[in-house]
Automatic annotation (TrEMBL):
InterPro entries: UPF0145_dom_sf (IPR035439), UPF0145_YbjQ-like (IPR002765). This is UPF0145 protein SAMN05216252_102417. The lineage of its organism: Bacteria, Bacillati, Actinomycetota, Actinomycetes, Kitasatosporales. Belongs to the UPF0145 family. It holds the Pfam family YbjQ_1. It comes from the Bacteria.
């Protein structure tokens, strides 16, 4: 498995900039639209649970679960971007993740932040 399978984030071609900061250097916040989020819930299949259980006996990274979590976070960001864009935003500020168990059925991953309209500052 390559490094791309363990990473994530938005596509460089995205029309909505997603940052974890309060502002974007070189840009002015024109309008704050409000909170947006992208949510997904993933169940674990039996094979990965058995593999993870066996791996926990000897220690080490659970690569299958790492890959699944990276894919899940990417999907949550994609949904966050879709919601922000549908509300007229071109940026999401202060993006964060929240991860929790969902009724013992799987893992809930929520990407959330503040949708805003930003414009470049002119010198």
């Amino acid at each position: 498995m390559g490094i791309d399978e363990y990473g994530g984030g938005q596509s460089p071609q995205s029309a909505v900039l997603v940052v974890t900061t309060n502002d974007v250097p070189g840009y002015r916040i024109e309008r704050v639209i409000g909170e947006v989020f992208g949510l997904t819930v993933r169940s674990r299949h039996l094979g990965s649970q058995i593999g993870a259980g066996l791996k926990s006996l000897v220690g080490g990274e659970l690569k299958g679960l790492t890959k699944t979590l990276a894919q899940t976070r990417t999907q949550a960001i994609e949904r966050l971007v879709e919601q922000a864009q549908s509300r007229g935003a071109n940026a999401v500020l202060m993006m964060r993740f929240d991860v929790s168990e969902a009724a013992d059925a799987g893992t809930e991953v929520c990407a959330y932040g503040t949708a805003a309209v930003i414009t470049p500052r002119h010198a």
